[in-house]
Design brief:
The protein is built from seven helices and twelve strands. It has two domains: 2-86, no CATH class; 97-287, no CATH class. 25% of the residues lie in helices and 31% in strands. The strands form two sheets. Strands 1, 4, 5, 6, 7, 8, 9, 10, 11 and 12 form a ten-stranded antiparallel sheet that branches. It has a two-stranded parallel sheet with strand order 2-3. With 295 residues, it is of the alpha+beta class. The two termini are 25 Å apart. It comes from Rhizophagus irregularis (strain DAOM 197198w) (Glomus intraradices).
């Protein structure tokens, strides 16, 4: 990767030498940061490449000039930035990948799954209300579709994630994702993908297809001494391998996540801690890569 970075630097220097500094566009400048971003955040498909490029169409004219921002430009920039930060991700946004076989179409959702989907959509779209067919809900609630298309694998960028639905790809079904806990803290949870699925609802007379995964999450270990068993000198922040319980939490709405929120994979290893009385088996979580979600 470092060699590729050096060659890219040489190419840009040649462009500047032969065509002048005016040909060094913002995108060429940003490409010089690809190497450090890949080192910091993992493979480039795992995060938005350069989110501030979304405002380049507004800012680049001023950034290339020697004068300062005008007051009107600054107002427009702040309003646009606020709109970007507050726009929620719902699961219908495109992602750099696709759902893969094995697949089954038009699977009828169970009653429990319908309840979880209603909870998911009500939490995702705060401006709407949803209910299942013949279910209770506020007047004007959107009735969700009772069928989904189920998939055993999903490609995100160049990486393929499996699920327990496809026995040949179980090893790539163990993933990490972040959740906000009840005390407001953000924690990274390990889980196993049961399957991927597409689900469509009607919003304002338009079909909205959502790309989702159904994940069973491993239970938290209450003791920090056990969770950070492999830490050195009590440095929890630098402890990469953590212990979790080998049992899943009960199924709930949290089992439904966007494929955009998958951070990366991990390797599960069973590990026992013994004392004089008994031995307790835990699950050692070994992250393969540290990645950011597509948001």
């Amino acid at each position: 990767m470092n060699e590729a970075h050096q060659r890219l630097v040489e190419v840009i220097k040649l462009i500047e030498t032969h065509y002048g500094r005016d040909m060094i566009t913002p995108n060429l400048h940003l490409s010089l940061h690809l190497c450090e971003c890949a080192h910091d955040f993992g493979p480039l498909y795992a995060f938005w490449y350069f989110s501030f490029e979304r405002v380049n169409s507004m800012l680049v004219g001023s950034l290339l000039e020697t004068d300062e921002f005008s007051l009107d430009e600054m107002r427009r920039y702040l309003l646009y930035l606020q709109d970007i930060r507050q726009s929620p991700i719902t699961g219908q946004e495109p992602f750099p990948g696709e759902m893969l076989r094995p697949s089954t179409e038009n699977i009828v959702l169970s009653d429990d799954m319908l309840d979880r989907m209603v909870e998911y959509y009500n939490a995702t779209y705060e401006m709407y209300n949803f209910r299942k067919p013949f279910g209770e809900g506020p007047e004007g609630s959107i009735v969700i579709n009772v069928k989904m298309n189920k998939f055993g694998r999903c490609r995100i960028g160049s990486e393929i994630f499996g699920s327990s639905m496809s026995s040949r790809h179980v090893n790539s079904s163990f993933i990490l994702a972040k959740f906000v806990t009840s005390d407001g803290e953000v924690d990274c949870y390990p889980g196993q993908i049961q399957y991927f699925f597409k689900h469509t609802i009607n919003l304002q007379n338009q079909s909205a297809e959502h790309f989702l995964a159904y994940v069973r999450w491993y239970q938290h270990v209450a003791s920090s001494d056990v969770r950070y068993y492999f830490s050195s000198d009590d440095e929890h922040e630098t402890c990469t391998v953590k212990l979790w319980r080998s049992k899943f939490y009960h199924e709930s709405r949290d089992c439904i996540i966007l494929v955009h929120h998958i951070l990366g994979q991990f390797i599960p290893v069973k590990y026992k801690i013994s004392d004089r009385r008994n031995a307790v088996e835990y699950l050692a979580i070994n992250p393969i890569n540290r990645k950011y979600h597509i948001k």
